[in-house]
Amino acid sequence: MTSPATVTVRAATVADRERWDRFVAAAPAATFFHRYAWRNVIERAFGHATHFLLAERGAEIVGVLPLGHVSSLLFGNSLISTPFCVYGGPVATDTEAEQELVSAATALAVKLGVDYLELRNRAPICSDWPTKDLYVTFRRTISASDADNLQAIPRKQRAIVRKSADAGLTAVVSDDVDEQWRAYSASVRNLGTPVFGRRYFRILKEEFGADCEVLSVRHSGVSVAGVMSFYFRDEVLPYYGGGVAEARDLSANDFMYWELMRRAAARGVRVFDYGRSKRDTGSYRFKKHWGFEPEPLYYQYFLVKARAMPDLSPSNARYRMLIETWKRMPLALTRVLGPMIARNLG
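RE: above sequence
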């Protein structure tokens, strides 16, 4: 009787890209953020080193784990799966392969001398690791029918969506990443958050092509809101969205997400992933108003030099004064300074 082949873990190379992506496309637990192109995005946009681990049993891929090494004086030294993404962690065909990937990642974390290894899981993997329950995600099945999807939205929010349709707004799919970035950068400044550089958004579009789409909302021909969304299998993920100050009175964000849902449903998408939010925040409540229910995320940590889990959240009192100061800064200045800070947030 032949015993099963041993699982081996090695560093993936560019030659593995097609095999890697075929595995990710077929693996039920995989997400858009496990795609190989994130390696290019992280390296090109931010200059961080990446370590994409590949588990094989013989000639067959049985698991993947994308990792990025983010190190800065301000925010510490970390190994993350996957930095700048809401999901990550190992994806494997069986427990043995998963455990081998985790073991390889912890060994790498020790070798690199990081403060901690962070796995951003949708399900808990390492039961004995410290786990942060700060974040949740919002996902829901949508119908091919606009009427059904509208009816699934609670009554008060449904009325806002209908009202926004009468506000003279238009939505167009655009390749103008800069237009979307200008609206997004205004939105995150108002939240006190440093914005990513526009080059990052251009690289996302270059790397993911048709699976990275920009929807721009305009009023009287002027852009007031926009969202960059990712498509993966039968899912759509509105990932970077926001609007200028006028967007609020126009309910432009409500119009934008409804238009995205409607257009995605028409192209066969059946899962609308509203993405990550911190518990009991404005974005958390906004998504609840749409009838989405929160699902816990499990951010798990292997501590190397750190004594406790990191807390880079805006709710951390340490950053409160900085956030309030950022909100009052001129928008043009935040667009210059923001990318230098955001590149190290991971």
